[in-house]
């Protein structure tokens, strides 16, 4: 291996939604022992970039790990999870649920996990068979031609504040009610080839992510202030929002995600079984 391979710039994907701030806030690539660049994007965009090797390590949709896990390793104990209502994974109903079950649903093109969770909810839990279409995350435009619209992240939060008269379903809450489990919507994954090529760089990035998470957990105030300033709402709202999220990836989160993968397989959304392989143990497996 040449020196240039060792010192190659590592690209890190950061989801541009507030739900990852409890891990990413304060992340400074200049503190790393390697050359790195942070690339911001919507989940679907980062899913694609990691798959194609345009970035090396990223927070991605957990569904994207389900699709391409053989090329990735999970960074331990990092995720975006919830054990119940999430407040940012919302289905806005223009028509009654009875009609939506066999109607048309527009789904945010930024999502991979939640669009497939919606299919599980509609088809497995509610016994429906709607038509789905992807669209830019704009509630008003989506509802012009559909019975319901699915939004995630900050788009969902903003829309929930402006919502005029739609019934709103929280996908995290529905999942909890039907399965008794939590759910993991995003994970941190590194491409296996990057982990093999630059193990020290990946270790340095992981250490920095854990240090940020620890700091943000100990003092949430700066994140809440930033959310009010950049997105709006009140401190109470954001404290409640972050209270509802977990950024760990322990046995409870993993059990929820495995059940989700199993249901996705049963609906033909995923092919084989998914193994949750963690860095660094599995680097050479
Ligand atoms: C909690 C959330 O989790 C997310 C949902 C994702 C998805 O549906 O693919 C991906 C990453 C996270 O942004 C959210 O978006 O609000």
TrEMBL record:
Q: What is its EC number?
A: 4.2.1.151
Swiss-Prot/TrEMBL catalytic activity? chorismate = 3-[(1-carboxyvinyl)-oxy]benzoate + H2O
- CDD domains, sorted: PBP2_Sco4506
Indicate yes or no for the key word Lyase: yes
> What are the record keywords, sorted?
Lyase, Menaquinone biosynthesis
Q: Name one GO biological process term.
A: menaquinone biosynthetic process
Entry keyword Secreted:
no
Which superkingdom heads the taxonomic lineage of this protein's source? Bacteria
Family annotation (InterPro entries): Menaquinone_biosynth, MqnA
Q: Which GO terms describe its molecular function?
A: hydro-lyase activity
Query: Which pathway does this polypeptide act in?
Result: Quinol/quinone metabolism; menaquinone biosynthesis
* EC category name: lyase
Which family does the record assign? Belongs to the MqnA/MqnD family. MqnA subfamily.
- What this chain does, per the record? Catalyzes the dehydration of chorismate into 3-[(1-carboxyvinyl)oxy]benzoate, a step in the biosynthesis of menaquinone (MK, vitamin K2).
Tell me the protein's name. Chorismate dehydratase
């Amino acid at each position: 291996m040449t020196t240039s391979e060792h010192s190659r710039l590592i690209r890190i994907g950061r989801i541009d939604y507030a739900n990852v701030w409890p891990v990413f806030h304060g992340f400074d690539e200049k503190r790393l022992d390697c050359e790195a660049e942070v690339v911001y994007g919507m989940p679907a965009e980062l899913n694609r970039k990691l798959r194609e090797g345009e970035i090396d390590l990223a927070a991605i949709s957990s569904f994207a790990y389900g699709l391409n896990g053989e090329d990735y390793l999970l960074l331990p104990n990092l995720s975006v999870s919830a054990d119940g209502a999430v407040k940012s994974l919302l289905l806005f109903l223009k028509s009654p649920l009875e009609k939506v079950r066999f109607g048309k649903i527009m789904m945010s093109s930024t999502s991979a996990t939640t669009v497939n969770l919606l299919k599980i909810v509609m088809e497995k839990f509610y016994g429906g068979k709607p038509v789905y279409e992807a669209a830019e995350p704009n509630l008003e435009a989506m509802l012009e031609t559909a019975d319901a619209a699915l939004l995630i992240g900050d788009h969902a939060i903003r829309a929930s504040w402006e919502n005029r008269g739609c019934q709103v379903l929280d996908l995290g809450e529905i999942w909890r009610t039907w399965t008794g489990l939590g759910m993991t919507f995003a994970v941190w994954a590194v491409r296996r080839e990057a982990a093999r090529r630059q193990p020290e760089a990946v270790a340095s990035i992981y250490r920095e992510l854990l240090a940020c998470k620890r700091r943000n957990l100990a003092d949430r105030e700066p994140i809440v202030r930033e959310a009010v300033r950049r997105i709006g709402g009140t401190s109470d709202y954001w404290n409640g929002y972050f209270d509802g999220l977990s950024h760990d990836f322990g046995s409870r989160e993993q059990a929820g995600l495995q059940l989700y993968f199993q249901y996705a397989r049963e609906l033909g959304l995923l092919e084989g079984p998914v193994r949750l392989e963690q860095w660094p143990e599995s680097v050479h497996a």
